[in-house]
Write a structure and sequence with these properties.
By secondary structure, the chain is α+β, with helices and mostly antiparallel strands. Helices cover about 40% and strands about 15% of the residues. It has 14 helices and 12 strands. The strands form 3 sheets. Strands 4, 5, 6, 7, 8, 9, 10 and 11 form an 8-stranded mixed beta sheet that branches. Helix 1 (about 30-40) packs across helix 10. The longest helix is centred in the last third of the chain and has 19 residues, at about 345-360. It is globular. It starts with a strand and ends with a helix. About 50% of the residues are buried.
Length: about 375
């Protein structure tokens, strides 16, 4: 049986250990000048509601005066790598400088020669098991798989993957995309397999396919992508996603309709995303400056405002620089007490299994 990776990342610190003062170390004047000479940073797959990226991008632009060219905000991790490959010889606006991808896509991109190494100033405070030793990719934030529920339609929300199978949820359940191309959806299928009693790796993914095949057969699974609009309209009143996306969606809907975000009791599966710089980045200095901003206390706290647990949470909690009001916005710590982090080997096996079996079992192209 394969093991799970367990990151030493606390979810909460005591109030007495916290302060409102964070240290925002500035990058070197030389890097700032070189980035400003390039004038632009091109990102990809960064929806403004994901991890508070709208505020992150706005703060970066204001701080350094660079233009941010945002490509395909709704792209998946595989789409990001394809965009790098498709634009190897292109220095124009369609070539991404930086990537934000699921953990398993970092080593894959490195193996394909799609990344360049760079170690940020805060490198030592990133946990060793969440970064490439040579600096080709490094963890940025994490969350757990959850599901959002339209409380107007389902006032008695399900609390587990098992509950979602119930007859009460016919024509009510959705995923947000294709698990063959999107990390969050692949990990949703994986988490379902864990809830079904699977072992880590391919077994979890395959049992997760069986789970969703069962939902499709019972009529519970809706053949429509889950999103906030479809949840609000009742087309997909339950859908799976990372907790931070669902919590942001809940806040944006502002009670119209009321939304409950459920961390399922029978499988709490966490996922780390990673940052990297394209080997073919047209704006390499802007890319490095972006990384320095993201991994500063300032950038990490902006992610926390977006409900994502930043990878340097441990370091910042120990130094007492996380404001209490940010901690108070997070779901109860006990929701995360059982969290498991699938290892790189587990995720690699899951990627192979979903590519081999999803279309056949689910009857999709």
């Amino acid at each position: 049986m394969k093991s799970y990776t367990r990151f030493a990342l606390p979810l909460l610190a005591s109030a007495s250990a916290l302060s409102m003062t964070a240290v925002f170390a500035e990058p070197s004047p030389e890097l700032i000048a070189a980035a400003q000479a390039e004038g632009m940073l091109t990102t990809i797959a960064l929806p403004h509601s994901w991890c508070g990226y709208g505020e992150v991008i706005a703060a970066f632009k204001e701080k350094y005066g660079l233009e941010v060219n945002e490509l395909n905000p709704n792209a998946g991790s595989a789409d990001e790598l394809e965009a790098v490959k498709a634009n190897k010889d292109n220095t124009g606006p369609q070539a991404p400088d930086v990537l934000d991808v699921g953990l398993s896509f970092g080593p894959a991109a490195k193996a394909e020669g799609l990344l360049q190494p760079y170690k940020v100033a805060e490198w030592d405070s990133i946990p060793d098991d969440a970064k490439d030793a040579d600096g080709y990719w490094y963890g940025d934030y994490y969350g757990v798989l959850a599901f959002g529920v339209n409380s107007d339609i389902y006032p008695d929300a399900p609390t587990s993957f098992a509950d979602v199978k119930g007859d009460d949820f016919a024509n009510g359940v959705a995923i947000i995309g294709d698990p063959r191309t999107g990390n969050s959806t692949m990990m949703t299928v994986y988490a379902a397999g864990i809830a079904e009693g699977a072992e880590a790796g391919a077994d979890a993914l395959n049992k997760g396919i069986e789970y969703f095949k069962g939902l499709k057969g019972s009529g519970n699974l809706v053949p429509v992508n889950g999103n906030s609009q479809n949840l609000a309209q009742g087309t997909t009143p339950i859908y799976f996603d990372w907790d931070y996306n669902l919590l942001a969606m809940r806040d944006n809907l502002a009670g119209n309709p009321p939304v409950e975000v459920i961390v399922p009791s029978d499988a709490v599966v966490a996922g780390v995303y990673v940052q990297a710089i394209s080997a073919y980045a047209p704006h390499p200095n802007a890319a490095k400056l972006w990384m320095e901003f993201l991994y500063s206390d300032e950038g990490q706290l902006l992610w926390l405002e977006g409900y994502c647990h930043p990878i340097r949470f441990n370091d910042m909690a120990e130094r007492g620089v996380i404001p209490q009001d940010l901690l108070d916005k997070l779901p109860p710590a006990e929701n995360y007490a059982k969290a498991i982090f699938p290892s790189l080997d587990d995720q690699a096996a899951a990627k192979e299994a979903v590519a081999a079996n999803w279309a056949t079992e689910m009857g999709v192209q």
